[in-house]
Design goal:
With 150 residues, the chain is mainly α. 59% of the residues lie in helices and 0% in strands. Possible subunit of a heme lyase.
Length: 150
């Protein structure tokens, strides 16, 4: 029983997908590579960073990050290289520049538009004339009496 609990504890810990053959000899560069790979999305797993993913494409991206850092690129240059190659979708935290402003602002804009339309509808409905209860004509009153007497 104790062995089972010990095994479960080891399995419950975080598992990183970085393989030993990917690790750089320089601990500073390796630390930078790990930081960068936590900011990049695995294109196969979608909402998982390449640091956590076991997919082959994630491995290729991890190796590419390390190659760029060994070549002397700064963190921003390495990220820009990968974004140029794979597109902005590879970033786990998208930027708020360019066409992305439209995407970032679309939700709040639609909410304000719907609230405005709802307010206009409710004000128009409040200003609409209410149906008046007209009194019955003498013919209608006579017909009502006949129906009730039956």
């Amino acid at each position: 029983m104790k062995r089972l609990i010990l095994i479960m504890c080891f399995l419950a810990g975080p598992l990183w997908a970085v393989q030993p053959d990917e690790v750089l000899d320089d601990p500073v560069l390796e630390s930078r590579a790990r930081d960068l790979s936590q900011e990049l999305r695995c294109l196969v797993c979608r909402n998982e960073s390449i640091d956590e993913s076991n997919a082959e494409l994630a491995r290729d991206l991890r190796l590419l990050v390390r190659e760029r850092l060994v070549a002397g690129d700064s963190n921003d240059e390495a990220i820009d290289f990968i974004v140029d190659r794979y597109g902005e979708y590879v970033l786990l935290k998208p930027t708020t520049t360019g066409a992305n402003w439209l995407l970032w602002g679309a939700g709040p804009a639609m909410l304000l538009l719907a609230a405005g339309i709802g307010l206009i509808y409710l004000r128009g409905r409040a200003k609409a004339p209410r149906a008046q209860d007209d009194e019955l004509s003498s013919k209608e009153q006579e017909r009502l009496r006949q129906i009730l007497d039956e």
